[in-house]
Amino acid sequence: MASHEQHLLDANPGPVHPRARETWEAAKDLAFADPLARHEAGRRARRLLDQARSVLAHLLEVSPEEITLHASGDSALRSALAGLSRARRRSDGRPVASAVEHSSVLRWLAGAEGGGSERLVEVDREGRVDLAAWAEAIGASTPFAALQAANGELGTIQPLPAASAHCAEVGVPLLVDARAVLGRGETPRDYDVLVGDARAFGGPALGLLVVRTGVRCDRLRPHSPHERGRAADPPDAPAALAAAEAWRHVDADSTEESGARALVERIRQSARAIDGVLTPGPELDRLAHITTISVPDADADHLADELGRRGFAVGSGSACTADTLTASHVLAAVGAPTTGNIRITVPLRAVAPDRDRAVSAFCAALPDAIAAVRSQRWRP
Q1: DSSP H or E stretch at residue 233
Q2: Cα–Cα distances in Å, from 84 out to 70, 146, 205?
Q3: pTM for this one?
Q4: C-beta neighbour count of 255 within 10 angstroms
Q5: How far apart are the C-alpha atoms of 183 and 246, rounded to whole Å?
Q6: Phi-psi bin for 358: left (phi > 0), alpha (psi -120 to 50), beta?
Q7: What are 13-55's pLDDT values in tens digits?
Q8: What is the layout of strands, in order, in the sheet containing 67-70?
Q9: What angle, 0 to 180 degrees and rounded to 10, lies between the N-to-C axes of helices 18-30 and 40-60?
Q10: For the chain, how long is the longest CA-to-CA vector?
Protein backbone atom coordinates (compact mmCIF):
# COMPACT_ATOMS: atom_id res chain seq x y z
CA MET A 1 0.00 0.00 0.00
CA ALA A 2 1.43 3.34 -1.04
CA SER A 3 2.03 6.02 1.58
CA HIS A 4 2.13 9.75 0.90
CA GLU A 5 4.15 10.36 4.09
CA GLN A 6 7.85 9.75 3.65
CA HIS A 7 10.05 8.87 6.63
CA LEU A 8 13.71 9.70 6.00
CA LEU A 9 16.00 6.76 6.86
CA ASP A 10 18.70 7.62 4.34
CA ALA A 11 20.46 10.64 5.81
CA ASN A 12 23.53 10.21 3.60
CA PRO A 13 23.57 13.16 3.44
CA GLY A 14 20.61 14.45 5.40
CA PRO A 15 18.81 17.79 5.50
CA VAL A 16 20.51 20.89 6.84
CA HIS A 17 20.10 21.42 10.59
CA PRO A 18 17.37 24.05 11.25
CA ARG A 19 19.69 26.32 13.23
CA ALA A 20 22.35 26.01 10.55
CA ARG A 21 19.81 26.93 7.89
CA GLU A 22 18.91 30.09 9.83
CA THR A 23 22.58 31.01 10.05
CA TRP A 24 23.09 30.25 6.39
CA GLU A 25 20.24 32.52 5.29
CA ALA A 26 21.29 35.36 7.57
CA ALA A 27 24.93 35.10 6.49
CA LYS A 28 24.03 35.47 2.82
CA ASP A 29 23.30 39.13 3.49
CA LEU A 30 26.52 39.67 5.43
CA ALA A 31 29.08 37.47 3.68
CA PHE A 32 27.95 37.60 0.07
CA ALA A 33 31.23 38.95 -1.30
CA ASP A 34 34.36 37.17 -2.47
CA PRO A 35 36.46 36.73 0.71
CA LEU A 36 39.59 37.37 -1.37
CA ALA A 37 38.36 40.78 -2.49
CA ARG A 38 40.10 43.86 -1.04
CA HIS A 39 36.98 45.99 -0.52
CA GLU A 40 35.08 46.16 2.76
CA ALA A 41 32.43 43.61 1.81
CA GLY A 42 35.17 41.15 0.86
CA ARG A 43 37.08 41.77 4.10
CA ARG A 44 33.86 41.21 6.08
CA ALA A 45 33.27 37.92 4.29
CA ARG A 46 36.85 36.90 5.04
CA ARG A 47 36.47 37.75 8.74
CA LEU A 48 33.31 35.64 8.95
CA LEU A 49 34.98 32.79 7.07
CA ASP A 50 37.90 32.88 9.51
CA GLN A 51 35.42 32.95 12.40
CA ALA A 52 33.75 29.78 11.10
CA ARG A 53 37.12 28.13 10.61
CA SER A 54 38.07 28.91 14.20
CA VAL A 55 34.87 27.31 15.53
CA LEU A 56 35.41 24.19 13.44
CA ALA A 57 39.05 24.03 14.51
CA HIS A 58 37.97 24.22 18.16
CA LEU A 59 35.55 21.32 17.68
CA LEU A 60 38.29 19.32 15.95
CA GLU A 61 40.74 20.29 18.72
CA VAL A 62 43.28 21.64 16.25
CA SER A 63 44.65 25.11 15.58
CA PRO A 64 42.89 27.25 12.95
CA GLU A 65 46.12 27.24 10.93
CA GLU A 66 45.87 23.46 10.55
CA ILE A 67 42.43 23.46 8.90
CA THR A 68 41.39 24.53 5.41
CA LEU A 69 37.83 24.59 4.09
CA HIS A 70 36.77 23.32 0.68
CA ALA A 71 33.66 23.36 -1.45
CA SER A 72 32.84 19.72 -0.62
CA GLY A 73 34.09 16.66 1.22
CA ASP A 74 35.20 15.15 -2.08
CA SER A 75 37.16 18.30 -2.89
CA ALA A 76 38.90 18.19 0.49
CA LEU A 77 39.72 14.51 -0.05
CA ARG A 78 41.21 15.11 -3.50
CA SER A 79 43.29 17.96 -2.10
CA ALA A 80 44.58 15.70 0.69
CA LEU A 81 45.47 12.85 -1.66
CA ALA A 82 47.14 15.15 -4.17
CA GLY A 83 48.98 17.06 -1.44
CA LEU A 84 50.39 13.92 0.15
CA SER A 85 51.33 12.53 -3.24
CA ARG A 86 53.15 15.71 -4.27
CA ALA A 87 54.96 16.05 -0.96
CA ARG A 88 56.11 12.42 -1.03
CA ARG A 89 56.73 12.07 -4.77
CA ARG A 90 60.30 10.89 -4.20
CA SER A 91 59.09 7.84 -2.29
CA ASP A 92 59.33 4.79 -4.54
CA GLY A 93 56.77 2.67 -2.70
CA ARG A 94 53.02 2.35 -3.21
CA PRO A 95 50.34 4.06 -1.12
CA VAL A 96 48.59 1.71 1.31
CA ALA A 97 44.86 1.67 2.04
CA SER A 98 42.31 -0.70 3.51
CA ALA A 99 40.14 -2.71 1.13
CA VAL A 100 37.01 -0.99 2.45
CA GLU A 101 37.97 2.64 1.87
CA HIS A 102 35.44 4.90 0.20
CA SER A 103 35.33 4.28 -3.55
CA SER A 104 36.53 7.84 -4.20
CA VAL A 105 39.77 7.03 -2.35
CA LEU A 106 40.27 3.75 -4.20
CA ARG A 107 39.50 5.34 -7.58
CA TRP A 108 42.01 8.13 -6.97
CA LEU A 109 44.74 5.71 -5.91
CA ALA A 110 44.10 3.41 -8.88
CA GLY A 111 43.94 6.30 -11.37
CA ALA A 112 46.64 8.26 -13.12
CA GLU A 113 46.79 10.89 -10.35
CA GLY A 114 47.58 8.24 -7.77
CA GLY A 115 50.11 6.51 -9.98
CA GLY A 116 47.80 3.59 -10.74
CA SER A 117 49.41 1.51 -8.04
CA GLU A 118 48.22 0.97 -4.50
CA ARG A 119 48.43 -1.80 -1.93
CA LEU A 120 45.15 -2.78 -0.31
CA VAL A 121 45.06 -4.38 3.13
CA GLU A 122 42.34 -6.93 3.80
CA VAL A 123 39.78 -6.66 6.60
CA ASP A 124 38.07 -9.18 8.85
CA ARG A 125 34.44 -10.26 8.52
CA GLU A 126 33.33 -7.20 10.48
CA GLY A 127 35.20 -4.79 8.22
CA ARG A 128 38.07 -4.08 10.61
CA VAL A 129 41.52 -3.74 9.07
CA ASP A 130 43.98 -6.57 9.74
CA LEU A 131 46.60 -4.80 11.85
CA ALA A 132 49.30 -7.42 11.24
CA ALA A 133 48.81 -7.12 7.49
CA TRP A 134 48.70 -3.33 7.85
CA ALA A 135 52.06 -3.29 9.61
CA GLU A 136 53.53 -5.63 7.02
CA ALA A 137 52.31 -3.50 4.11
CA ILE A 138 53.68 -0.18 5.40
CA GLY A 139 57.39 0.53 5.27
CA ALA A 140 59.75 3.45 5.06
CA SER A 141 59.26 3.71 1.28
CA THR A 142 55.45 3.97 1.58
CA PRO A 143 54.50 7.51 0.50
CA PHE A 144 51.39 7.59 2.70
CA ALA A 145 48.63 5.37 4.08
CA ALA A 146 44.85 5.88 4.10
CA LEU A 147 42.42 4.44 6.64
CA GLN A 148 38.84 5.54 7.22
CA ALA A 149 37.74 6.39 10.77
CA ALA A 150 34.63 4.25 10.28
CA ASN A 151 32.83 2.57 7.43
CA GLY A 152 29.76 4.24 5.93
CA GLU A 153 27.98 0.96 5.16
CA LEU A 154 28.80 -1.35 8.04
CA GLY A 155 29.43 1.28 10.71
CA THR A 156 32.69 -0.46 11.66
CA ILE A 157 35.06 1.76 13.64
CA GLN A 158 38.66 1.20 12.62
CA PRO A 159 41.51 0.74 15.14
CA LEU A 160 43.09 4.09 14.39
CA PRO A 161 45.37 4.34 17.44
CA ALA A 162 47.21 1.12 16.59
CA ALA A 163 47.26 1.82 12.84
CA SER A 164 48.52 5.35 13.42
CA ALA A 165 51.18 4.19 15.87
CA HIS A 166 52.73 1.91 13.26
CA CYS A 167 52.68 4.68 10.65
CA ALA A 168 54.43 7.01 13.08
CA GLU A 169 57.02 4.34 13.88
CA VAL A 170 58.13 4.14 10.24
CA GLY A 171 57.58 7.82 9.42
CA VAL A 172 54.63 7.40 7.06
CA PRO A 173 51.81 10.01 7.17
CA LEU A 174 48.32 8.63 7.81
CA LEU A 175 45.32 10.10 5.99
CA VAL A 176 42.04 9.48 7.85
CA ASP A 177 38.74 9.78 6.02
CA ALA A 178 36.36 10.88 8.77
CA ARG A 179 33.43 11.87 6.57
CA ALA A 180 31.11 9.29 8.15
CA VAL A 181 32.14 10.17 11.71
CA LEU A 182 32.43 13.88 12.33
CA GLY A 183 29.56 15.14 14.43
CA ARG A 184 28.00 11.65 14.66
CA GLY A 185 30.65 9.80 16.67
CA GLU A 186 33.91 10.29 18.52
CA THR A 187 36.19 12.72 16.69
CA PRO A 188 39.41 10.97 15.62
CA ARG A 189 42.64 12.04 17.26
CA ASP A 190 45.13 9.64 15.68
CA TYR A 191 46.03 10.97 12.24
CA ASP A 192 48.38 13.21 10.29
CA VAL A 193 45.83 14.37 7.73
CA LEU A 194 42.06 14.25 8.22
CA VAL A 195 39.14 14.85 5.85
CA GLY A 196 35.55 15.59 6.87
CA ASP A 197 32.25 16.62 5.32
CA ALA A 198 29.86 19.06 7.02
CA ARG A 199 26.86 17.31 5.47
CA ALA A 200 27.40 14.44 7.92
CA PHE A 201 26.42 16.63 10.88
CA GLY A 202 23.66 18.73 9.36
CA GLY A 203 25.70 21.35 7.58
CA PRO A 204 25.61 22.34 3.92
CA ALA A 205 28.20 21.06 1.44
CA LEU A 206 31.58 21.95 2.91
CA GLY A 207 34.80 19.97 3.08
CA LEU A 208 37.17 20.07 6.03
CA LEU A 209 40.86 19.27 5.66
CA VAL A 210 43.19 19.10 8.64
CA VAL A 211 46.95 18.79 8.20
CA ARG A 212 48.89 18.48 11.44
CA THR A 213 51.71 20.97 11.89
CA GLY A 214 54.94 19.55 10.52
CA VAL A 215 53.32 16.97 8.23
CA ARG A 216 54.57 17.05 4.66
CA CYS A 217 51.44 17.69 2.59
CA ASP A 218 51.44 20.20 -0.25
CA ARG A 219 47.86 21.26 0.37
CA LEU A 220 46.01 23.91 -1.54
CA ARG A 221 44.61 26.81 0.44
CA PRO A 222 41.39 27.76 -1.36
CA HIS A 223 40.77 30.80 0.82
CA SER A 224 44.28 32.24 0.61
CA PRO A 225 44.89 35.15 -1.75
CA HIS A 226 48.32 33.63 -2.55
CA GLU A 227 46.73 30.44 -3.88
CA ARG A 228 43.93 31.91 -6.00
CA GLY A 229 45.32 30.46 -9.24
CA ARG A 230 45.53 26.95 -7.83
CA ALA A 231 42.14 26.74 -6.17
CA ALA A 232 39.12 26.01 -8.37
CA ASP A 233 36.51 25.79 -5.64
CA PRO A 234 36.99 28.21 -2.72
CA PRO A 235 34.53 27.72 0.16
CA ASP A 236 31.42 29.78 0.58
CA ALA A 237 31.52 31.91 3.75
CA PRO A 238 27.79 31.52 4.56
CA ALA A 239 28.11 27.74 4.15
CA ALA A 240 31.12 27.69 6.47
CA LEU A 241 29.24 29.65 9.13
CA ALA A 242 26.26 27.30 8.78
CA ALA A 243 28.50 24.25 9.09
CA ALA A 244 30.06 25.59 12.28
CA GLU A 245 26.61 26.29 13.72
CA ALA A 246 25.37 22.81 12.80
CA TRP A 247 28.25 21.01 14.49
CA ARG A 248 28.08 23.26 17.54
CA HIS A 249 24.43 22.33 18.11
CA VAL A 250 24.93 18.63 17.41
CA ASP A 251 27.96 18.56 19.71
CA ALA A 252 25.89 20.13 22.50
CA ASP A 253 23.21 17.40 22.28
CA SER A 254 24.57 14.74 24.62
CA THR A 255 21.70 12.35 23.88
CA GLU A 256 22.01 12.37 20.08
CA GLU A 257 24.36 9.41 19.74
CA SER A 258 22.63 7.20 22.33
CA GLY A 259 19.26 7.91 20.75
CA ALA A 260 20.46 6.96 17.27
CA ARG A 261 22.17 3.83 18.61
CA ALA A 262 18.97 2.59 20.22
CA LEU A 263 17.06 3.09 16.97
CA VAL A 264 19.66 1.27 14.88
CA GLU A 265 19.72 -1.63 17.34
CA ARG A 266 15.94 -1.88 17.09
CA ILE A 267 16.21 -2.02 13.30
CA ARG A 268 18.93 -4.68 13.39
CA GLN A 269 17.00 -6.88 15.81
CA SER A 270 13.81 -6.58 13.77
CA ALA A 271 15.65 -7.43 10.55
CA ARG A 272 17.38 -10.49 12.02
CA ALA A 273 14.03 -11.82 13.21
CA ILE A 274 13.04 -12.28 9.54
CA ASP A 275 14.08 -15.59 8.01
CA GLY A 276 17.19 -15.29 5.82
CA VAL A 277 17.85 -11.62 6.60
CA LEU A 278 21.32 -10.55 7.75
CA THR A 279 22.80 -7.43 9.31
CA PRO A 280 26.49 -7.34 8.30
CA GLY A 281 28.95 -5.51 10.52
CA PRO A 282 29.94 -5.62 14.18
CA GLU A 283 27.65 -5.52 17.16
CA LEU A 284 30.13 -3.44 19.12
CA ASP A 285 32.65 -0.75 18.13
CA ARG A 286 30.34 0.67 15.49
CA LEU A 287 28.84 4.00 14.53
CA ALA A 288 25.55 4.66 16.24
CA HIS A 289 23.53 5.77 13.21
CA ILE A 290 24.43 3.42 10.32
CA THR A 291 23.50 -0.15 9.44
CA THR A 292 23.05 -2.35 6.39
CA ILE A 293 20.28 -4.91 6.00
CA SER A 294 21.00 -7.79 3.63
CA VAL A 295 18.26 -9.81 1.94
CA PRO A 296 20.26 -12.07 -0.41
CA ASP A 297 17.24 -13.47 -2.27
CA ALA A 298 15.74 -10.03 -3.04
CA ASP A 299 16.67 -7.23 -5.39
CA ALA A 300 17.91 -4.18 -3.48
CA ASP A 301 16.35 -1.62 -5.81
CA HIS A 302 13.00 -3.40 -5.75
CA LEU A 303 13.13 -3.57 -1.96
CA ALA A 304 14.00 0.13 -1.70
CA ASP A 305 11.13 0.93 -4.08
CA GLU A 306 8.71 -1.26 -2.10
CA LEU A 307 9.68 0.43 1.14
CA GLY A 308 9.35 3.78 -0.63
CA ARG A 309 5.77 2.95 -1.56
CA ARG A 310 5.17 2.21 2.10
CA GLY A 311 6.58 5.60 3.12
CA PHE A 312 10.26 4.94 3.90
CA ALA A 313 13.25 6.50 2.16
CA VAL A 314 16.20 4.10 2.43
CA GLY A 315 19.46 3.70 0.54
CA SER A 316 20.07 0.82 -1.85
CA GLY A 317 23.46 -0.47 -2.90
CA SER A 318 26.78 0.81 -1.66
CA ALA A 319 27.10 4.00 0.36
CA CYS A 320 29.77 5.15 -2.07
CA THR A 321 29.17 3.32 -5.36
CA ALA A 322 25.38 3.44 -5.78
CA ASP A 323 25.78 5.78 -8.71
CA THR A 324 27.94 3.27 -10.59
CA LEU A 325 25.48 0.35 -10.37
CA THR A 326 28.30 -1.91 -9.19
CA ALA A 327 28.24 -4.32 -6.27
CA SER A 328 29.52 -3.02 -2.94
CA HIS A 329 33.25 -3.61 -2.63
CA VAL A 330 32.82 -3.22 1.13
CA LEU A 331 30.40 -6.12 1.44
CA ALA A 332 32.52 -8.21 -0.92
CA ALA A 333 35.58 -7.53 1.24
CA VAL A 334 33.88 -8.88 4.38
CA GLY A 335 32.39 -11.89 2.60
CA ALA A 336 28.80 -10.65 2.92
CA PRO A 337 26.18 -10.99 0.16
CA THR A 338 26.57 -8.23 -2.41
CA THR A 339 22.94 -8.32 -3.56
CA GLY A 340 19.74 -7.41 -1.79
CA ASN A 341 21.29 -4.80 0.50
CA ILE A 342 19.64 -1.67 1.79
CA ARG A 343 21.38 0.94 3.90
CA ILE A 344 19.89 2.82 6.83
CA THR A 345 21.39 6.10 8.01
CA VAL A 346 19.36 7.47 10.91
CA PRO A 347 19.05 11.26 10.61
CA LEU A 348 19.74 13.75 13.35
CA ARG A 349 16.80 14.29 15.68
CA ALA A 350 16.87 18.01 14.88
CA VAL A 351 16.08 17.39 11.21
CA ALA A 352 13.77 14.40 11.78
CA PRO A 353 11.90 14.89 15.08
CA ASP A 354 9.64 11.93 14.19
CA ARG A 355 12.51 9.48 13.76
CA ASP A 356 11.45 7.26 16.69
CA ARG A 357 8.01 6.85 15.16
CA ALA A 358 9.56 6.33 11.74
CA VAL A 359 11.77 3.51 12.98
CA SER A 360 8.88 1.82 14.78
CA ALA A 361 6.78 1.97 11.61
CA PHE A 362 9.71 0.75 9.51
CA CYS A 363 10.29 -2.29 11.74
CA ALA A 364 6.60 -3.13 11.52
CA ALA A 365 6.53 -2.76 7.72
CA LEU A 366 9.81 -4.54 6.91
CA PRO A 367 8.57 -8.18 7.01
CA ASP A 368 5.70 -7.53 4.59
CA ALA A 369 7.89 -5.44 2.28
CA ILE A 370 10.50 -8.21 2.08
CA ALA A 371 7.80 -10.84 1.51
CA ALA A 372 6.32 -8.76 -1.32
CA VAL A 373 9.68 -8.39 -3.06
CA ARG A 374 10.56 -12.05 -2.59
CA SER A 375 7.26 -13.07 -4.17
CA GLN A 376 8.08 -11.04 -7.29
CA ARG A 377 10.98 -13.38 -8.08
CA TRP A 378 8.58 -16.14 -9.04
CA ARG A 379 6.28 -14.15 -11.26
CA PRO A 380 6.51 -15.01 -14.98
Answers
A1: none
A2: 17, 11, 23
A3: 0.91
A4: 8
A5: 9
A6: alpha
A7: 889 999 999 999 999 999 988 888 899 999 999 999 999 999 9
A8: 67-70, 207-211, 193-197, 174-177, 145-146, 96-98, 119-121
A9: 150
A10: 70
